Every structure is written in structure tokens, then in C-alpha cells.
Amino acid sequence: MNDETVAARIERLVAEEHELRQREEADRSSGDALESDRERLKTVEVELDRCWDLLRQRRALRDSGGDPGDARARDEGTVERYLQ
User: Fold this and answer.
1) Is residue 84 in some structural domain?
2) pTM value?
3) Is position 83 within any domain?
4) 76 inside domain
5) Which of 36, 42, 47, 54 has the fewest CB atoms within 10 Å around its CB?
6) How many domains does the chain have?
7) How far apart are CA 14 and CA 45, in angstroms?
């Protein structure tokens, strides 16, 4: 996976995140729909964190003379524990 592919995935996830946040407003009257949107939103947020982490790894490897291809997507448990 190259930087452009990761960046494109980030763009798609951000678009979905925005759509879900807008739908969340509309779904307030439907508990099931609201819960479904919130669950998907959580999944999207985690995937975004994983993609950003991968992109940062690739850039750091490149900047330090390493091979960006050595970067690997980290699991949810790892990226969600990072301090922001």
C-alpha cells in the first residue's frame, strides 16, 4: 500500500464520518438507526486512526532513510492507546 492509497482511504473514511455525523442528527427519533450510526462511526474513527498511524509510519521511515514498505498497520488496541 502506498501513501496515495492510504491518503485516498483516509479521504473516503472522513467523508463517511461526516455523513454519519449528519445522519446522527436526523436519526435522533429512531433509536435503532441512531445506535447503528454510532456503532459505524466508532468503527470509522478507529480505522481512521489506523490509517493515519500507517501514513505517519511510512513518512517516518522514508525521512530516516528506511523503506516505507516496511510500515505495517497496527491493531486497534495499539493506536487507540496513543496520547493525542
Assistant:
1) no
2) 0.85
3) no
4) no
5) 42
6) 1
7) 9
The CB density around residue 9, as the number of other CB atoms within 10 Å, is: 17
All three cell numbers of 18, joined, read 461526516
Residue 64 to residue 9: CA distance in whole angstroms: 25
Give the tens place of pLDDT for each residue, 5-28.
999 999 999 999 999 988 877 767
In the three-class reduction of DSSP (H, G, I as helix; E, B as strand; rest coil), residue 19 is classed as helix
Reduced 3-state DSSP string for 32-82: HHHHHHHHHHHHHHHHHHHHHHHHHHHHHHHHCCCCHHHCCCCCHHHHCCC
Would 78 be classed as within a structural domain?
Answer: no
Burial class, 42, CB count within 10 angstroms (exposed 0-12 / middle 13-18 / buried 19+): exposed
Cα separation, 41 vs 55, in Å, equals: 21
pLDDT in tens, 55-71: 999 999 999 999 999 99
Domain region containing 52: 3-71
